[in-house]
Structure formats: C-alpha cells, structure tokens
C-alpha cells in the first residue's frame, strides 16, 4: 500500500505529476475527539482506522490504491484515501467479512454514549477524468501520486490546463 505519509522516501528532483488514469475516487474520513477524558470512547475509534488500512493493504483487489494519514489538530484526525472505484469502496464498507462492518456495528451499539465523546465524518468524491490535475515539486510520491504512481511533468503537460486535458487511452478509444 502506498502512503503519502512515508517520510523515509527521498524526494524526486524537479516537477512531477500523478500517473492517475480515468476517474479518481477520493474518500476523506475522520474523527474528532470531543471530550479528551472519554478515552475509552474515542480510543477504539482512533485505532480502528489503522486496522482497516492494514486489512485493505493485504488485499489490493479490494480497491484501495493509497492513503495519507493526517491530523488537523490535537482533536481531529483523518485519512485521505484513493480508491479504484466507488463500487469497490461500497463493497468494502458492506462486506460482512471485513473489519469496517464489525467496527460500525460496535459503534452503533455504543452510539448514545460514544458520540458525545467522539465525532465521526466522511466525504466521498468521484472526480471524473479531466476534472483533476496535480503537480509535485521536489517531493517524494505523495497523495494521489503515492496512490497511482509518479510521472515526469512533461508526460501530462507543464501547465495545469494541459494536465486537466489529459485523457487515458481508454477514454480516447471510447
């Protein structure tokens, strides 16, 4: 699994772009600690996400391409995830044999008490091909590039407009 948070990866000199092809599915998912003293309520939520990411990392066919773990403050933690398709994201979320379903069942049983101590949120975006672009300057693979691979900027165009105009070979045939 490629994660943009790996600080041991060396920067790639110059300007690069993500090698993404086709639509890009981005899931932003996170939590907010509402009451620090309710550790027994928010800690299980905090440790659940890394467990799900490990589970998905072991089985690439589930559709998670990569992720970046982030902190917005001492109270907020979130993950930016890149998926092959919204269908694979939905399938993982609903799969009875995967940890996500079990974690949600536990959260829903404790909902009244836990939600006072921890807030949960997610946003999902499907960005059709031609509606996203990226540039990384002297960076290791990060974000979308860590999830899909890195290309020299010249492969997609030096200007943002050129990168937005890129179409995969599948899109050009259709």
Could you describe the 3D structure shown?
The two termini are 30 Å apart. Helix 1 (39-58) runs antiparallel to helix 3 (99-109). It is built from seven helices and eight strands, in the order βββαββαααββαβαα. The relative contact order is 0.28. Helix content is 36%, strand content 30%. The longest helix is centred in the N-terminal third of the chain and has 20 residues, at 39-58. The protein is α+β, with helices and mostly antiparallel strands. The chain has helices at residues 39-58, 86-94, 99-109, 111-117, 144-148, 160-165, 169-173; strands at residues 2-3, 12-18, 24-33, 64-71, 76-83, 118-127, 136-139, 150-152. The model has no long low-confidence stretch (mean pLDDT 89).
SSE layout:
Elements: E1 2-3, E2 12-18, E3 24-33, H1 39-58, E4 64-71, E5 76-83, H2 86-94, H3 99-109, H4 111-117, E6 118-127, E7 136-139, H5 144-148, E8 150-152, H6 160-165, H7 169-173
Parallel strand pairs: 1-4
Antiparallel strand pairs: 2-7, 2-8, 3-5, 3-6, 4-5
Helix pairs in contact: 1-3
